[in-house]
Amino acid sequence: MADVALQQITKHFRNVTALREVSFEVRDGEFFVLLGPTGAGKTTSLRIIAGLEKQDSGSVTFDGESVDARSPAERDIAFVFQQYSLYPTMSVYDNLAFPLRSPLRKTPEAEIKTRVTAVAEILRISHLLERKTARLSGGEMQRVSIGRAIVRKPRIFLMDEPLSNLDAKLRESLRIELEHIQKTQHATTLYVTHDQVEALTLADRIAVLRQGRVIQLGAPQDIYDRPATVFVAQLVGTPRINLLPAMRTNGVLQIEQSPLQIPAGSTALPAKFTLGIRPEDVQVTADGAFGGEIALIEPLGVETILYIKSGSQTLLSLASGMVQQRIGESVRFSIVRERLHYFDGDGARVV
Amino acid sequence: MATIELRQVEKKFGEVYAVQPVDLTIQDGEFVVLLGPSGCGKTTTLRMISGLEAVTTGQILIDGRDVTWKHPSDRDIAFVFQFFALYPHMTVRQNISFTLEAQKVPRAEIEQRVHETAKLLQIEHLLRLRPRALSGGDRQRVTLARALVRRPAAFLMDEPLGALDADFRAIMRAEIKRLHLAQHATTVYVTHDQIEAMAMSDRIVVMSNAVVQQVGTPAQVYYDPANLFVARFIGSPGMNLIPGQYVEGIVHLPGDNHYLVPDGWRGRLAQQLRSDDVIVGFRPEAAQIAPGGALHTTVYADALHGAYTMLHLALDGSTATHTMAHVRADRDVDYDIGTPVNFDLNPEMVRFFDPKTELAIL
Asked: What homologous superfamily is domain B4-232 in, according to CATH?
């Protein structure tokens, strides 16, 4: 395995700038996720690393060595796409063996057998080895695609939304599998997704991309607990973070169009700012400092989303299990003050 | 407003059942969700209620009136689809008002109803615009407004949020529920998304393979699923379902684990199980991690979800046959793969299923 670095990569397509001076480093053995909406530059980054696309400026290095002059084949990477690109008339075994049989590698058949068997076990597809891939389910096909990438022992795995074509239950089980495989095989992996759950659950580190720029880079816990901008705060977490326009006046933080007031802490805030509160940090409790009215209740089973109206603002609160409250009821609630987020007029985090 | 009653309604295409006989009464003002994976028969059921699809046998009654063979337009219902079927050359106002104009409703009343509906949906500022100038969410609001303005006896909605991104779906989900609470119009809503079903409905009709699996409140389908399908389909992840053998008050589970069955269940298990085989079911939040916990596992993967961590625990070591339990833990919990973890189960949240019949033990 290898560490992979992008240094000041810029890429234009005609007059659209896809990437602007993007730099990051995927460390050896790391699971690194590029997270962002459509058009953020995630896939372009991946294709530049693979050598499928040529950057306008900047450099890509593997283990400190520039690979800019190397063809995709010479870079020794494995790509897993959203669409499974398997050979439908071949068996699962032959699909897995295919990259090892390439004229470039010429692996002995005995070694191929050992490696295919081992990979099939890891992905729990041993019982499918004789089957033609056309007869597999979507989840099984994607396991084989991942297997075909692993079997080669490449320097880095590039995965472009590999789970997005699967239904919710399959996505969940394959996500668990991917995490387990990556953590036990220590494969350097660069994984692209627009799904914040995949990013939080899989990544060692996340780079949030927006409009061709890296907005924030950090561990999942950092991204969730200390979002650098309003955009990042909204991108991660379900239900989404409460964002409330607020003013600083006479030692209190006054939420606009609401009676909500929070004592100002030591944070130096501009006169007007946006207050961010995660729904799990708003808790309905009899001795809560704040009052409101329940506008809506969404029971999800494991937890319940309460919409609490205070003036003309509505706060989302997350409670465990099912709740006793009813719509229209007045409630008291507390806010976890140590976990408040402040953003200035440009949407940047105020530290 | 209206009650909707299905009496032994079935649909066959040739010899194949699209919907096996259904009996269902939807109360006046109720919000009922038809939930299931694609191909389960939920949309066909909705289309039979609307009259867009003829029943093979059975009866459909709206407010006690047999409408089984009535034309869709004679059923006093409004249909909201996934796709934004708006007229591009008309303004938002015209899109909302044209069905009323076609019905020759007096002009002043049309004005008033369009105004009220637009206010309810918070799209008053968009009335002069054409659909192409609107965002996806606003277009769907206009689609809803067009259905609402007719004041039908019932609404039928077929995955109306399916085309929206996750964020907007959550916002519109809350808006549709808010509208329902304001109007209390009988609503039948089709979705494959169990979160939507749980969040919005008074009752959920869970369907699979053309068969109604369970009808119940969100709490009922979540805590007391009628069978293994419902147990898996509801929840994210679904209910943990661990196979074992029941012998004299103890379930023997994979990895040399044992679960001591609470007294109240023993008689029922002895009576209802067809063999020793049993499946122990519990939701991820029913497990409490404790050093001295009765169930022994090792960490297979652990996943931070922001507000909490989901631990994926293997009950037996071998990865080939492993049986996994998904357990919800505090957000600060962070284990390496392979770490031994023990947990206890909250006995009130444990359920049992017979693997032969796939039904819950009651």
From this structure: P-loop containing nucleotide triphosphate hydrolases (3.40.50.300)
Q: Which CATH superfamily is domain B238-353 in?
A: Nucleic acid-binding proteins (2.40.50.140)
Q: Which A residues in the span 150-179 are in contact with B, Cβ-Cβ below 8 Å?
A: 167-169, 172, 175-176, 179
As a whole number, mean pLDDT of residues A38-48 equals 93
SS3 assignment, position B82: coil
Give CA–CA dist A321/B192, Å, rounded: 22
Contact criterion met (CB below 8 Å) for B303 and A176: yes
Domain ranges of chain B: 4-232, 238-353
Contact call for residues A247 and A78 (beta carbons, < 8 A): no
Q: What would the mean pLDDT of A45-73 be, rounded to a whole number?
A: 94
- Cα B234 from Cα B196, distance rounded (Å): 11
For A190-245, how does the pLDDT look when each residue is reduced to its tens digit (9 = 90+)?
Answer: 999 999 999 999 999 999 999 999 999 999 999 999 999 999 999 999 999 999 99
Q: What is the mean pLDDT of residues B203-231?
A: 98
The partner residue sitting opposite B198, judged by closest CB among A200, A278, A300, is: A300
Q: What is the pTM of this model?
A: 0.90
Q: Answer whether A254 touches B (CB < 8 Å).
A: no
**CA closest to B299 among chain A residues:** A180
Number of H helices and E strands in chain B, helices first, is 9, 20
